[in-house]
Design goal:
Blueprint (H helix, E strand, L loop, with lengths): L8 H9 L3 H21 L4 H17 L10 H20 L17 H5 L3 H9 L3 H12 L4 H8 L3 H28 L1
Helix pairs in contact: 1-2, 2-3, 2-4, 3-4, 7-9, 8-9
Length: about 180
């Protein structure tokens, strides 16, 4: 039985570059859960996340020769998954964009956010409309600038800022509601 942890990252990469299915399976096993979590942040459901994950791994194997060992391999794989998720939604044309003029300025209460666990936060993010969620993930989690997000999603920088602002507003409202329920309960 193959155990992904028995190989170093460098061994996995080199074995996959040679097209060895044993190493391909081991690489998939090592990164499956982590990358599934990345894909899930950009989708409405697990089936879409699974589709994006599979398509992303196909790209990982296809373009593995372009990875030159500079920087984190995990980061390289993550970028492929994020870009695959973005492509998935571009094809689906499921973005829900808002006008720049509808953006809100927000103040956040970090004490409320600090009271939530990881799963509660992820659940709140997944409940956002897809356009808001995508921009929020790209900006707040992946660290892309609004200019980069605009280029990736074919939207203006202002629209990216507006989407993020709206996402924060919705999240803030949901968190305040959860906090109110917790205090009443």
């Amino acid at each position: 039985m193959l155990v992904a942890s028995t190989y170093s990252e460098a061994e996995l990469v080199e074995g996959c570059k040679r097209g060895n299915p044993v190493y391909q399976k081991a690489l998939y096993q090592r990164y499956y859960r982590l990358m599934y979590g990345v894909c899930l942040r950009y989708t409405d459901n697990r089936d879409d996340a699974e589709d994006i994950l599979q398509e992303g791994f196909v790209k990982v194997f296809k373009y593995l020769d372009t990875f030159q060992g500079k920087g984190s391999f995990e980061g390289w794989v993550r970028r492929i998954m994020v870009h695959t998720a973005i492509e998935h939604y571009r094809k689906s044309s499921r973005y829900f964009l808002v006008d720049v003029n509808s953006a809100y300025d927000l103040e956040t209460d970090s004490d409320i956010i600090g009271s939530l666990n990881r799963e509660e936060i992820l659940s709140l993010i997944r409940s956002l409309p897809v356009g808001y969620r995508t921009v929020f993930n790209l900006f707040a989690i992946e660290g892309y600038s609004h200019q980069e997000i605009g280029e990736m999603l074919n939207i203006s920088e202002g629209t990216s800022k507006s989407q993020l602002s709206r996402a924060k507003k919705i999240l803030q409202e949901k968190i305040l509601t959860l906090n109110k329920w917790a205090q009443e309960g």
